[in-house]
């Protein structure tokens, strides 16, 4: 299950960066591409975010994480590059 969580963490981090780049770069260029890409990128990121939180909750009980570690892992999913940090720091020893 930890391998699946690592993959989802990587994909969730990438989808967040893609969503931000779509919002910041494409929107400011006034391209029609922004409106075309917004829904598929947004729904993909939303599904990956929910999957990330669900897997983190399951792993909390499976690996007996304390609340602080669980909280940091969950909060990192809303920060750019946060999931990459979690994978290096918290999931390396698992």
From TrEMBL:
The chain crosses the membrane at residues 7-25, 37-58, 70-86. Pfam families: DUF3817. InterPro entries: DUF3817_TM. Residues 3-90 form the DUF3817 domain. The keyword Membrane applies. It comes from the Bacteria. Keywords: Cell membrane, Membrane, Transmembrane, Transmembrane helix. It is found in: Cell membrane. It is a multi-pass membrane protein. One of its GO terms (cellular component) is plasma membrane. This is Integral membrane protein. It comes from Flavobacterium haoranii.
């Amino acid at each position: 299950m930890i391998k699946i969580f690592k993959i989802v963490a990587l994909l969730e981090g990438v989808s967040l960066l893609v969503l931000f780049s779509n919002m910041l770069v494409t929107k400011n260029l006034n391209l029609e591409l922004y409106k075309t890409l917004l829904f598929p990128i947004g729904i993909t990121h939303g599904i990956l975010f929910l999957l990330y939180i669900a897997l983190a909750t399951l792993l909390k009980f499976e690996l007996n994480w304390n609340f602080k570690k669980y909280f940091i892992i969950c909060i990192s999913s809303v920060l750019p590059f946060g999931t990459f940090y979690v994978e290096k720091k918290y999931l390396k020893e698992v």
